[in-house]
């Protein structure tokens, strides 16, 4: 048997094994009410040809993050607390309405950082635009092909972090060779300064996030994380956990945290260990051992936000395991805030049915159901503040389309929702009443990035930047005062 044939056989077996892991994990993990069609596992496996399947399937290691948003594509999963610069409070004087349509530069999504917009697409792993004018500043071409998901982290210390293919080579049959690098790019010039090979093809939020003085990357194995220097990519320290354990990651004000569950009990876990890693040394400290299974929902005011079907404080006397209960169509799910000292605030929330998105924004949790109902919850009390129509056209259940994470405009008291069909809606932050609706010139699904892409909406001063597919639009909406 030739070496090429051996390599191809090994890769095929690895891909088949990964596909089976995706099926098993998606079918066994409790998705905590986030919409997941019954045939989601097969949809994911069939979603792309094998040459890119490895990149989509790489999310299997982080698939439990489905509880707080879509794992696949751009974004989703636990959101680092400090991976974006502050957006300007007022629109700069040199801003003007603009529209950019650079094919291959933004199909996988964008991130706003200060006055810069960092995007990723099918032909460019990273591209930088001026948020004031839409001018293209630089692009990093893909290494081979760019059909897989991607995203940008930063800038931090003059660097932007992203992902790229480890090689542009293909197997003899033309299939994708496999392999992903995390890379550091000079934020001014767009020059790739360093790359580090990952042990998987996961490019979700669980694959890498910014921490103090570095990048927390899921490397060198699937059972470890390493702190990399953001300037050089050199490993500063590595933390490893047992192979029978799955650990989600989060960055709280630059400090890395792990929430770890034994994989043998992932469907009905007994405990979740919350571990703090010192960003300078990697020293591990168990912050709290929580009963039941808890998943990272986000970060708020220096606290880790967890989502579960069980009270993090444990059951009340005589109440069994303390799991959420159902009354009619209402299911009680638990929101937990956890501080660095281990203080726990855990409250149940009444949630009806399933939802397609769940996002922590400031001191709120916003969820949206497949029927287009938006709900707002206070993180500190678990109280539902309102339940209203989201006001935008929702993706059908049989698609893999998503809506943008909510964007708050605090000075106006609005929260905005943006869908994949170009619809925009503003709801009153306190009451949920719809106060405005409009449209952007966003590309219709199928003519741009194809299904699975995430629309993004950013509030930039008093203007919007809406990105979906290859088209990015910045304009000042006619909003009510």
Architecture overview:
The protein has 481 residues and is mostly beta strands. The chain has helices at 3-28, 40-46, 50-57; strands at 98-101, 109-113, 116-120, 124-130, 136-141, 153-156, 159-165, 180-186, 192-197, 208-211, 214-217, 224-228, 235-240, 245-252, 255-262, 271-277, 284-291, 294-300, 303-308, 326-327, 330-338, 344-352, 357-361, 364-368, 373-378, 384-389, 407-409, 414-418, 423-428, 434-439, 456-460, 463-468, 471-475. The protein contains 3 helices and 33 strands. The strands form 8 sheets. Strands 18, 19, 20, 21 and 22 form a 5-stranded antiparallel beta sheet that branches. A 4-stranded antiparallel beta sheet has the order 1-33-32-31, with no helix packed on it. A 4-stranded antiparallel beta sheet has the order 2-3-4-5, with no helix packed on it. Helix 1 (3-28) packs antiparallel against helix 2 and helix 1 (3-28) packs across helix 3 (50-57). It starts with a helix and ends in a 6-residue tail after the last strand.
List the helices and strands and how they pair.
Layout: H1 3-28, H2 40-46, H3 50-57, E1 98-101, E2 109-113, E3 116-120, E4 124-130, E5 136-141, E6 153-156, E7 159-165, E8 180-186, E9 192-197, E10 208-211, E11 214-217, E12 224-228, E13 235-240, E14 245-252, E15 255-262, E16 271-277, E17 284-291, E18 294-300, E19 303-308, E20 326-327, E21 330-338, E22 344-352, E23 357-361, E24 364-368, E25 373-378, E26 384-389, E27 407-409, E28 414-418, E29 423-428, E30 434-439, E31 456-460, E32 463-468, E33 471-475
Antiparallel strand pairs: 1-33, 2-3, 3-4, 4-5, 6-7, 7-8, 8-9, 10-11, 11-12, 12-13, 14-15, 15-16, 16-17, 18-19, 19-21, 20-21, 21-22, 23-24, 24-25, 25-26, 27-28, 28-29, 29-30, 31-32, 32-33
């Amino acid at each position: 048997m030739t070496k090429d044939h051996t390599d191809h056989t090994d890769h095929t077996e690895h891909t088949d094994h990964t596909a089976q892991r995706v099926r098993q994990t998606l079918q066994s993990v409790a998705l905590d009410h986030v919409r997941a069609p019954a045939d989601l596992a097969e949809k994911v496996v069939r979603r792309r040809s094998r040459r890119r399947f490895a990149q989509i399937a790489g999310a299997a290691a982080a698939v439990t993050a489905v509880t707080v948003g879509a794992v696949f594509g751009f974004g989703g999963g636990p959101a680092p607390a400090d991976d974006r610069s502050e957006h300007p409070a007022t629109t700069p004087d040199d801003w003007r309405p603009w529209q950019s349509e650079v094919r291959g530069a933004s199909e996988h999504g964008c991130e706003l950082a200060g006055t810069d917009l960092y995007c990723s697409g099918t032909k460019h792993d990273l591209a930088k635009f001026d948020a004031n004018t839409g001018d293209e500043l630089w692009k990093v071409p893909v290494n081979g092909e760019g059909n897989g998901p991607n995203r940008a982290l930063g800038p931090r210390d003059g660097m932007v972090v992203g992902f790229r293919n480890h090689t542009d080579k293909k197997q003899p049959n033309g299939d994708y060779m496999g392999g992903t690098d995390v890379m550091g790019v000079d934020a001014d010039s767009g020059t790739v300064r360093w790359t580090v090979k990952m042990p998987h093809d996961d490019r979700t939020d669980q694959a890498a996030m910014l921490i103090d003085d570095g990048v927390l990357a899921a490397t060198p194995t699937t059972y470890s994380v390493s702190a990399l220097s953001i300037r050089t990519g050199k490993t500063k320290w590595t933390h490893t956990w047992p192979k029978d354990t799955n650990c989600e990651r989060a960055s709280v004000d630059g400090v890395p945290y792990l929430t770890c569950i034994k994989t043998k009990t992932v469907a009905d876990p007994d405990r979740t260990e919350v571990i703090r890693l010192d960003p300078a040394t990697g020293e591990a400290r168990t912050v709290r051992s929580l009963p039941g299974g808890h998943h990272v929902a986000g970060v708020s005011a220096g606290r880790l936000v967890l989502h579960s079907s069980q009270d993090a404080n444990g059951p009340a006397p005589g109440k069994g395991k303390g799991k959420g209960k159902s009354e009619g169509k209402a299911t009680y799910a638990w929101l937990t805030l956890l501080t660095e000292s281990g203080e726990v605030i855990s409250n149940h929330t009444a949630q009806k049915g399933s939802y397609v998105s769940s996002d922590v924004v400031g001191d709120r949790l916003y969820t949206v159901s497949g029927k287009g109902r938006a709900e707002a919850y206070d993180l500190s009390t678990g109280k539902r503040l309102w339940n209203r129509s989201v006001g935008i056209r929702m993706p059908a259940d049989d698609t893999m389309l998503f809506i943008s994470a909510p964007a708050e405009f605090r000075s106006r008291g609005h929260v905005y929702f943006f869908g994949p069909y170009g619809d925009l809606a503003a709801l009153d932050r306190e009451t949920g009443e719809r106060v405005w609706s409009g449209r952007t010139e966003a590309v219709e699904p199928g003519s741009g990035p194809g299904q699975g892409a995430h629309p993004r909406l950013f509030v930039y001063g008093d203007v919007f930047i809406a990105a979906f597919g290859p088209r990015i639009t910045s304009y000042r909406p006619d909003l009510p005062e």
